[in-house]
Structure formats: C-alpha cells, structure tokens
Specification:
Shape: flat
Helix content: 10-25%
Largest sheet: 6 strands, antiparallel
Strand order of the largest sheet: 1-2-4-5-6-3
Radius of gyration: 19 Å
Number of strands: 6
Number of helices: 3
Strand content: 25-35%
Distance between the termini: 24 Å
Order of helices and strands: HEEHEEEEH
Length: 175
C-alpha cells in the first residue's frame, strides 16, 4: 500500500519493529528474550504467522544465522496482546546451520513451541521461477479491495488486513 492511499495505516515494513525481541539473558546454548505483541496484527486475536515471526526473530538473534531455512511451529494456546517471554535453546550447530528450539509463554502459559533451522546467507538451494505468470491484468490496473469495500460503505474488520495491498482480479460484492 502507498502512503497516499486513504486506507493506508502502516506497512508490512513495520514487521521488523513489531517482531523485535529484547535479550534478557543468554549464551551460545540458551537465551531468554521478551517481546511485545502488537495489536496492529489482529485478526480475531494476534495473527498466527505474526506470532511465529516473533519466534523466528528470537531464534535468529540466538543463533546469529541470518537466513531461516525452516520452521516447524506448534501453536499451544491463543496469544494475547501482551508481553511474551521467549526461551531459545541450541539443539545442534554445524559449520553452516543451527537448529534452535523456541518456547514462547505468556504469564507462564505456553503459547508456541517451534524448531527453527537457521543458515548463513550463502547457504541453501537456488530456486527457479517460471518465466511467465498467469494471464491477468497488471496490479496497477486493478482496484484495491479496501477501495472496493469503501464503495460498498464497508471497511476491513481487522487491522491485519490493512497491511495488505490486495487487488483482486475478480470481486464478489455480496458474499
């Protein structure tokens, strides 16, 4: 979304700020972080992918690897818009990759447990992409969903959706 569009509030670029973790204690084997869960990522509660992003940030800070290779996440309870405590533990480390266990709690209640493999930036597979995408209009020729909703006198019901510049090829006025 662009700043001059009426439905713009904040951009996805704020994900860096909204997933920031603060180191409380730690060493190469175990660390403890805290983070604040932002209400800007609400759907019915904090969006799960956003909560997992906080876990990824803690794992990356713990192991010092700047490229996540994989994350296996179990959501154990719904998180709240409140501070979280994050424990990280190195499970295995090699010359090019590190596996980190992440446990996130709120008020001593587990909300997430994940296993993250982090690698160095120059490690991983090369991906090949298709040369031609689907035959659809260019995004600049499409109307944003926020504008389509506004034309109906409606707006997004959750702040999370304001982060997306969703421009549907097809739109159904009455779901």
């Amino acid at each position: 979304a662009r700043a001059d569009e009426p439905h713009y509030r904040r951009s996805v670029a704020d994900l860096e700020r909204d997933t920031a973790v603060v180191l409380d204690t730690g060493d190469e084997q175990q660390s403890t972080f805290t983070a604040e869960v932002s209400e800007e990522w609400a759907i019915w509660g904090p969006m799960g992918g956003y909560i997992a992003s906080i876990a990824l940030r803690a794992a990356g800070e713990h192991c010092g690897r700047n490229r996540p290779a994989s994350i296996n996440t179990s959501f154990l309870a719904a998180a709240q818009f409140a501070p979280v405590r994050i424990r990280t533990e190195t499970l295995r480390s090699t010359r090019v990759a590190t596996c980190v266990r992440v446990v996130m709690t709120q008020n001593d209640r587990p909300v997430l447990e994940a296993t993250v493999w982090g690698t160095d930036a120059n490690v991983g597979l090369d991906h090949h992409t298709a040369r031609r995408g689907p035959d659809v209009p260019h995004h600049s020729a499409l109307t944003s969903a926020a504008d389509l909703l506004a034309a109906q006198g409606e707006s997004w019901t959750h702040p999370f959706w304001e982060r997306l510049d969703y421009r549907p090829v097809e739109w159904i006025d009455d779901w």
